[in-house]
Each structure stands twice: as C-alpha cells, then as structure tokens.
Amino acid sequence: MASTPSEPTSAAPTTTTTSDSTATMPPLMYGTAWKKERTADLVYEAIKAGFRGIDTAAMTKHYDEAGTGEGIRRAIREGIISRKDLFVRCPKTLLAWSTLQSYLPSSPDPSRRGKILRLGISNVHSVSLLDVLPGVGVVQNRFRAVERAWDRQIRSWCEAKGARYQGFWTLTGNPSIWDYPAGPAVFVQAIADGAGVSCAEAWYVLMMERGVVVLDGTTDVGGHMRGDLEARGKVAEWRGTEEGKHVWGVCWEKFLRVVDSA
Length: 262
Ligand SMILES: NC(=O)c1ccc[n+]([C@@H]2O[C@H](COP(=O)([O-])OP(=O)(O)OC[C@H]3O[C@@H](n4cnc5c(N)ncnc54)[C@H](OP(=O)(O)O)[C@@H]3O)[C@@H](O)[C@H]2O)c1
Known about the structure:
This is NADP-dependent oxidoreductase domain-containing protein. The chain is α/β, with parallel strands linked by helices. The chain contains ten helices and eight strands. The protein has a domain at 175-262. Residues 1-2, 4, 6-7, 31-33, 55, 122-123, 140, 168-172, 198, 200-201, 215-220, 224, 227-228 line the site of NADP nicotinamide-adenine-dinucleotide phosphate (NAP).
C-alpha cells in the first residue's frame, strides 16, 4: 500500500451535496485525490462497483474535479445511477462560508434554499473553531492514533451536534493497528478470520460501525474496491451466527477501548 501525500492542514470548509441530489451520506465514500488522469475512469468504476458517495475538491494539486464530473456523467449516461442517488462533497474556501450558508435548507431566500444540504469543514483540530462557525454539518479529518488521539474531541463534538465525521488516512495513518510488523491487531485479525474479509476491510467495518464515514481512495478496481464495499455485509452476516456474535462482541469492546478511551 503506497503512502499518500497530505493536503494543506488549513481548515477548509466544504459543501457536501447539491440541489438535485436527495441522497444521504453513505458510510463509505470514494475519495478522488491523487488519481490524476485516471480520475474519470476510477470514479466511473467506483460508481459501477456500488459507491454512492464521492469526495472531490477544487484543489488541482490533489484532485481532478473535471475528471470526477466526467466519471459521474458517464455513469449517469449508462443508467447506472441517477444524480439524485449520488452524494458528492466539493470543497470551497473558508471565505465563502457565509455565502454558502445562504444555500442551506433553512435559508430565508427561496431561490437559494436547499441547494446545499450540509456544510462541512476539513482539517480542523479545534473545538472552539467549530463552536464559532455556524451550521457545521460535516467534519472531515485524519482519523489516526498518532498525533490526533483518534480525533476523540472532534468526534465527540460531532456526536453532540449531530454532525457527521468523515475520516481519511484510516489505513495509511494507522499501520500500528492493522499492519504492524508482527501482523494486525488481534481484534482486527479475529474479525477478518471470522467474517472472511481482509484485515483492512475489517478495520473499515469497525470504523463504519462506530459512525465514522470512511473515505476510501482505492485504485484496485477488481479487488479492494469491491471488497471494501462488500465487507460490511459479510461481517453483518457472520455476526448473525452464534460464534460471530460472540467474537464480534469481544472485538468491539477492544476496538472501543482503543479509539474511544482517553
Ligand atoms: N480533506 C483532506 O485534507 C484530505 C486529505 C487526504 C485525503 N482526503 C480524502 O480521503 C480520500 C482517501 O485518502 P487516504 O489518504 O485515506 O488514502 P486512500 O487514497 O484511501 O489510500 C490508502 C491506501 O489504501 C489502500 N487500500 C484501500 N482499500 C484497501 C484494502 N481493502 N486493502 C488494502 N489496501 C487498501 C489503497 O491501495 P489500492 O489503491 O491498492 O487499493 C491506498 O494505497 C482521498 O481520496 C480524499 O478524497 C482528504
């Protein structure tokens, strides 16, 4: 697995969907960063495989917004989805915050009302900033142990305010959990073995079950893309068995102790 470059760490508010979409935010979203000239094809393949949430941005150093649009249009043209079924995140700058607010469903201006369903912010590590920005509905941050202590404070803020928390660097930023030299953490491995998924997939499922919206930028169309989408269903099926229910319960407690205990 290649390590991925980081985006600027400044807080950048983001809009998350547009007027002609009524889709809700799915627990696993496709991340389009660093795909360059492959962006359109990979976005198309991701939608074809079953992703219904797409994360893009206007920062040309990291994203190809036009390519993302092209991939989406191709999928719509082929009848794989309609626009209203797709949840799209597209960031703007912090300066635009108050203007963007006027497009929320609560806007007093009927011509703007509801063109944006949620406003979000990324790379924010201060609860006080969140407290002074009105209408934050999404926070997109690094979800990792090192440096951010699993972003506990920010996740708690989101839970208290009803905002969604989106996590990136979930695999590359946490090698100690799922890929340390001696092998993955025992509870991740136990879920993977029981449910017949890979350790990375088991890790994704644990985060999703905890309410983290996972950003997944896989380029492995035939393998990881489908595997990541199918993993939650496989784990749910296994949890329906007596043994699966028991093993999951033990692993879940361990997982919560890791990511939620100070
Ligand atoms: N707001 C921000 O500042 C910010 C910063 C970073 C990222 N993001 C967003 O988050 C998205 C995700 O970025 P990320 O940095 O978390 O990393 P990522 O692009 O998801 O890539 C992480 C690595 O995970 C691998 N992977 C995925 N599924 C796997 C599986 N089942 N088994 C093994 N490996 C697997 C990928 O390899 P393969 O290609 O081989 O599957 C890739 O090398 C980005 O595309 C972007 O949309 C936002």
